[in-house]
Amino acid sequence: MHAELLIHAEWILTVDPENRQLTDHAVAVADGRIQAILPYEEARRTIQAEQTVELPGHVLIPGLINAHTHASMSLLRGLADDLPLMTWLHEHIWPTEGRWVDAGFVADGTRLAVLEMLRGGVTCYNDMYFHPEVSAQVTAESGMRAVIGMIVVDFPTGYAASPDEYIAKGLALHERYRDHPLIRVAWAPHAPYSVSDAPLQRIATLAFELGVPVHIHLHETRDEVENAENAHGERPFARLDRLGLIGPSLVSVHMTQLEDAEIARLAETGASVVHCPESNLKLASGFCPVAKLLEAGVNVALGTDGAASNNDLNLLGEMRTAALLGKGVSGSASAVPATEALRMATINGARALGLESEIGSIELGKSADLVALDLRDPHTQPLYHPVSQLVYAAGRHQVRQVWVRGRQVIRDGAPTTLHVAEVLSEAQIWGARIGG
Ligand SMILES: CSC[C@H]1O[C@@H](n2cnc3c(O)ncnc32)[C@H](O)[C@@H]1O
Ligand SMILES: [Zn+2]
């Protein structure tokens, strides 16, 4: 058998339905896809590889999936800290966005975020931000994978003037990326409090027709739910259900306020939840009942949210926080074990984004979106269970090799498609402009 690439790793965590942990195996890649997973000796005998990468002491995992972020908000990292959500948004973030966000901001911010994420082993992200056509282009150029949000809000911004215009721009984006190998699109109405019934109903119809996900902030804080109940006598979840949005394409982000009946409804309809533990902690938004959701059979993925509320785009850190917080919130040390946190950051993210047949696990025929971490560091030794070191102890500097669709985008810790000094210099210029 001929392969373009053979990756020989000391451990492989497949995250496939059998959740295999393989030792001394190799993954063969052809045409950007996983062609074989074999014991290394057998691979050596049977596969003619153009390139072999030897990874002693490394664990190979599926690329991590950041299921909710606002990539270009990386340029607003550290601008306004230690505030609750609504003060942070209304008094700091939205005024700053109104003044500074344009296509150039989104290009430079997305590049900074893509660089940070690739270096942290994230190979795919789900975005919601202004000028999505710019994020899509920058991401595709960097060789990363993304689901780009076709954003909708009721109010005018520098990007669009009305819900109809946001939707028209979204449809144009969908058309532009219809057959792209790395870029997909999703509807991204910002939140129930910022998008009214008519555009939400139209989005429900269009999502069904186009077969794309609907990505929305939902039940982020108790205030959000109480304000809606006081104003309209209805919880936002019930309103979205009435408008036809609770279903298999729903990617509901945050969900810190959930009643048992809502959890049952999520499970029954096949909707996904994206848990953003660090953003929820930093904004003191509340706690998503992850253990209960998993128990009920709801698909729970992991996201960082934007770097302005996290303040990093580190999925390794997010797995650790999710595993620890899941135990704290449920009162059970067995809740959200390391293997589950890894599933949330990989296959569950893929499922939420409608990409389960393509990414999220190391399986035959799937895209070769792969990450190798070197565990030969004092804080990840000795090694009883690779998944334990990965989730509870590993850091981003241990991400050494990253491939997306079989293309190496990080080699020995350094990007192959982005120029670090240039990306940092543009970020510093924006920092001086905005802060000065
Ligand atoms: C319509 S573009 C996205 C919009 O969302 C804002 N945002 C960033 N983080 C959050 C959050 O945690 N909750 C609600 N809205 C958020 C961002 O600043 C953009 O304006
Ligand atoms: Zn968000």
What would your notes on this structure say?
By secondary structure, the chain is α/β, with parallel strands linked by helices. The chain has two domains: 2-61 and 370-404, Urease, subunit C, domain 1, CATH 2.30.40.10; 64-352, TIM Barrel (Alpha-Beta Barrel). The protein is built from 16 helices and 16 strands. The strands form three sheets. An eight-stranded mixed beta sheet has the order 3-2-1-4-13-14-15-16. Strands 5-6-7-8 form a four-stranded parallel beta sheet. Helix 4 (132-142) links the parallel strand 6 (122-127) and strand 7 (145-152). The chain starts with a strand and ends with a helix. The model has no long low-confidence stretch (mean pLDDT 98). The chain binds ligand LTUXU72L and zinc ion. It is an enzyme of class 3 (hydrolase). Substrate binds at residues 97, 190, 220, 305.
User: Which bin fits the share of residues in helices?
Assistant: 25-40%
Strand order of the largest sheet: 3-2-1-4-13-14-15-16
Strand content: 15-25%
CATH superfamily of the largest domain: Metal-dependent hydrolases
Under the CATH scheme, the architecture of the largest domain is Alpha-Beta Barrel
CATH class term of the largest domain: Alpha Beta
Low-confidence stretches: none
Oligomer: single chain
* Total number of beta strands: 16
